[in-house]
Amino acid sequence: MRKINQRLALIVACFGIVLLLLSVFTGLFQQAWFVFLIALWLFVFSSCCYRLTPLFIARNPLDKFIQREQQHLLLFTLSGFFDRTHGPQWLLIASIEKIQCRDDQCTIFSSEQRQCVISLPASKAELMHYFNGLFTEHEKQAIIIE
């Protein structure tokens, strides 16, 4: 996610340079729609920069996105600007066959031919450690965590 956020910030910064050049070499800065476009760019750029800070990771721990309730997992994913989340998706723990962890992403396969992909601000090692602590020993024997 960090690499993706860095690329997004770079792309948005390039759009900002283009907007800056347009405002300097043309009279577009006098137009209300162009000022609105610059304000929108500032909002998006600040969101991209915020996602690169340690504060973003500190405010978004794994237990905010993966929660256990009795025999269910509640899954939330990051979406939108700043700390906005989307979800929850409910999964019955007994139906989970495999959990595939990658940096910044987790895919959960269930026996119901269902696949849930969630984006998370965590490394593969952090995700695997979290899942190993989340499930009981009996559940870990039935679920492949890789």
Q: What keyword list fits this structure?
A:
single chain, 146 residues, alpha+beta, four-stranded mixed beta sheet, three-stranded antiparallel beta sheet, elongated
Question: How does this model look, in words?
Answer:
About 45% of the residues lie in helices and about 25% in strands. β1 and β2 form a beta hairpin. α1 packs antiparallel against α2. The strands form two sheets. The chain has a four-stranded mixed sheet. By secondary structure, the chain is an alpha+beta fold. It is elongated and about 70 Å long. About 10% of the residues are buried. The chain has five helices and seven strands; from the N terminus they run αααββββββααβ.
- Give the radius of gyration: 20 Å
The biggest beta sheet, please?
4 strands, mixed
Oligomeric description of these chains: single chain
- Low-confidence stretches are none
Strand content range: 25-35%
The helix/strand series, from N terminus to C terminus, equals: HHHEEEEEEHHE
Work out the helix count. Answer: 5
Question: Span between N and C termini?
Answer: 19 Å
Mean pLDDT: 87
Structural class: alpha+beta
Strand line-up across the major sheet: 6-5-4-7
Give the strand tally. Answer: 7
| Overall shape | elongated
How much helix is in the residues? Answer: 40-55%
Summarize, please.
The protein has 146 residues and is of the alpha+beta class. It is built from five helices and seven strands; from the N terminus they run αααββββββααβ.
